[in-house]
Recover the amino acids of this structure.
């Protein structure tokens, strides 16, 4: 093993024309010992001199040179703790048991456990970033950086991923083409639909706003969480341009009597459209890239209508309030509604848990939970869920190709909210994990993600497995139950410990009947729940009716659903959900009972 390490080190030196490699007496004494990632169990590697290191095992529950010797309680915990796969199995089976648990105090107990166990994996306050692999004031304080859960691979390592693997990583285009490019559309067995896919994209791009103009590893979304910046803009100037400055409302336009986001001519904010699209056809939205897809325009329209609807309700309650207070209070309600829908419907659907999830910040009031959040680079890499996208878009009897769909400003207004919701709710999305399922139109985004992770020197997939208390894989075969993929990976990477983070997440063997593998869930859920519950509105000072304009506003937050978001803001109430209908509903059956809607 040692000699293969030296051999790969040598391969790199050869590229650099290092004379030491020309003889067979290799002097690799300058290899930074932290390149071996010697410190286990969250221990911190500190280099001393040229070839010495120490692991700081403080409060890890382990000691010894590499933090590998468990203290008594760590040993007990290690022994008693069921594996994530066992816990997942229990949470997704035994319907009868969960029906009882859902109705008792055990629901709260388990929900609290889910939240605290997940959030405890995310350091708070945040730690590293792409420039600082050690704690520093700058990485704490400069919020223009995405944070990092694991520090970058040191610069002076023999291989790009430390000491394992080849000196040169596989060509990203080749990697994506051979392993990620879709051959034949594979649907998500959990039945996620495009309503889910566009919600995912719309929701997450309020806090994933990579800002490469500042440099790699930076973000433009400085609030680092659920701030509804995708509705209101990520800065005050943009917000002011989007606001009507009357009754707290946002600007809008009417098309055939229906409310839509205003045009850029009326709300002068910069939107990313191809050159040649005139301001009169560009929609002005908080997030500058949401002109890209009608699915994003749809959610922008729904939230715009919801904002203005809530403003009317608040104004009726508080006729003395000025525009500013109506706006600000409505924004908090919109943030609360978002978190409610995300936890109780979006995460509920995605998890497949039979435990009925609950958005109730009071669950954490007696726990040592830190409010606040910092978005991590790993979270942004992890959320590249482009396999969700289908091969074409089926709307109201039409089939739209990507070229007819992308940046087409008239799809939204041509079909309108009701038809788009009905269509997106009925069209199944692709399975995210398992490989070979990204439509060729978006594979270049995956190539970009892989390139970014290399430039930012992200640690190998197995290091992240360990960081999230998962067992590192010992072979490609164990990692992906698929012979062909294992063979390809063996050839491309040579060593399971050199497999990269993002390909690891997308190619890991699937949990049976689900949308992706263990790692996506076990790494994604902590980021997600920490971000959702870390919002200031969830803190004891904020979480009370007065923050939301009184009981009426508080009730709106606590009863928000996807269906209400659509059906209180549209004329008819189409089938709306994050999954396709179990059986295709017939046209004679109404899916709803919101009163003011006609048969669809
Ligand atoms: C047809 C649909 C889609 C297209 C055309 C598309 C296109 C893109 C493009 C061009 C980028 C920027 C890549 C770069 O700058 O290197 C991007 C980034 C990203 N996309 Fe998509 N995407 C689509 C759907 C989705 C969906 C459904 C999700 C689900 C969550 C998603 C998640 C992301 C994420 C997390 C990023 C990184 C954002 C950032 O860091 O700023 N995308 N996508
Ligand atoms: C600690 O890790 C280093 C590098 O991986 C290894 O060489 C050494 O033998 C380990 N020490 C112990 C006590 O396990
Ligand atoms: C418990 O929650 C699960 C998941 O939401 C659901 O399928 C089940 O019907 C619920 N049971 C009760 C009694 O609420
Ligand atoms: C954050 O760091 C970047 C890169 O060093 C720098 O350009 C920027 O000004 C810093 N931001 C603040 C608020 O100091
Ligand atoms: C844009 O969408 C409209 C409505 O679906 C369609 O009629 C038109 O052909 C599309 N435009 C392009 C350039 O594909």
């Amino acid at each position: 093993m040692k000699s293969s390490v030296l051999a790969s080190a040598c391969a790199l030196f050869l590229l650099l024309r290092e004379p030491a490699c020309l003889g067979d007496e290799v002097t690799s004494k300058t290899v930074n010992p932290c390149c071996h990632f010697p410190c286990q169990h969250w221990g911190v590697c500190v280099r001393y001199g040229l070839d010495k290191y120490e692991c700081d095992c403080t409060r890890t529950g382990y000691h010894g040179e590499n933090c590998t010797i468990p203290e008594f309680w760590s040993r007990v915990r290690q022994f008693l703790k069921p594996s994530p796969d066992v816990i997942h199995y229990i949470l997704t089976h035994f319907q009868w048991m969960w029906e009882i648990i859902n109705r008792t105090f055990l629901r709260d107990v388990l929900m609290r456990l889910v939240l605290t166990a997940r959030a405890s994996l995310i350091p708070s306050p945040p730690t590293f970033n792409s420039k600082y692999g050690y704690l520093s004031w700058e990485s704490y304080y400069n919020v223009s950086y995405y944070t990092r859960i694991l520090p970058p691979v040191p610069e002076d390592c023999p291989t790009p991923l430390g000491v394992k693997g080849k000196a040169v990583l596989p060509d990203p285009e080749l990697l994506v083409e051979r392993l990620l490019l879709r051959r034949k559309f594979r649907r998500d067995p959990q039945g996620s639909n495009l309503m889910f896919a566009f919600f995912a994209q719309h929701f997450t791009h309020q806090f994933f706003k990579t800002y490469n103009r500042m440099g790699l590893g930076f973000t433009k979304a400085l609030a680092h969480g659920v701030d509804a910046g995708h509705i209101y803009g990520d800065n005050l100037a943009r917000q002011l341009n989007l606001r009507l400055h009357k009754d707290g409302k946002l600007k809008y336009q009417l098309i055939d009597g229906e409310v839509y986001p205003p045009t850029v001519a009326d709300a002068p904010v910069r939107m990313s459209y191809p050159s040649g699209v005139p301001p009169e056809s560009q929609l002005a939205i908080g997030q500058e890239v949401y002109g890209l897809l009608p699915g994003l325009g749809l959610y922008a329209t729904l939230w715009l209508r919801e904002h203005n609807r809530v403003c009317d309700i608040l104004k009726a309650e508080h006729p003395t309030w000025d525009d500013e207070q109506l706006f600000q209070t409505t924004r908090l309600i919109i943030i609360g509604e978002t978190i409610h829908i995300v936890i109780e419907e979006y995460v509920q659907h995605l998890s497949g848990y039979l435990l009925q999830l609950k958005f109730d910040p009071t669950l954490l009031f007696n726990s040592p939970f830190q409010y606040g959040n910092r978005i991590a680079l790993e979270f942004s890499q992890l959320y590249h869920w482009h396999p969700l996208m289908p091969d074409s878009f089926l709307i109201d009897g039409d089939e739209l190709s990507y070229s007819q769909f992308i940046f087409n400003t008239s799809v939204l207004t041509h079909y309108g909210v009701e038809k788009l919701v009905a269509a997106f709710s009925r069209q199944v999305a692709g399975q995210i994990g398992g490989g070979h399922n990204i439509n060729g139109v978006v594979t270049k985004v995956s190539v970009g993600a892989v390139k970014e992770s290399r430039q930012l020197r992200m640690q190998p997939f197995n290091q992240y497995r360990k960081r999230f208390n998962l067992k590192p894989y010992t072979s490609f075969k164990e990692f992906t139950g698929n012979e062909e993929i294992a063979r390809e990976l063996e050839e491309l990477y040579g060593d399971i410990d050199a497999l990269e983070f993002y390909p690891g997440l997308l190619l890991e063997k699937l949990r049976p009947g689900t949308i992706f593998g263990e790692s996506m869930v076990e790494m994604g859920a902590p980021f997600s729940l920490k971000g959702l519950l870390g919002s200031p509105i969830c803190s004891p000072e904020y979480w009370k009716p007065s923050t939301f304009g009184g009981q009426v506003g508080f009730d709106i937050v606590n009863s928000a659903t996807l269906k209400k978001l659509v059906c209180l803001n549209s004329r008819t109430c189409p089938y709306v959900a994050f999954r396709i209908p179990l059986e295709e509903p017939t046209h004679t059956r109404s899916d709803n009972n919101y009163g003011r809607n006609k048969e669809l």
In short: Residues 23 and 37 are 28 Å apart (CA to CA). The chain is about 40% helix and 5% strand. The beta strands are 44-48, 52-56, 62-63, 69-70, 128-129, 147-148, 253-255, 258-260, 393-395, 398-400.
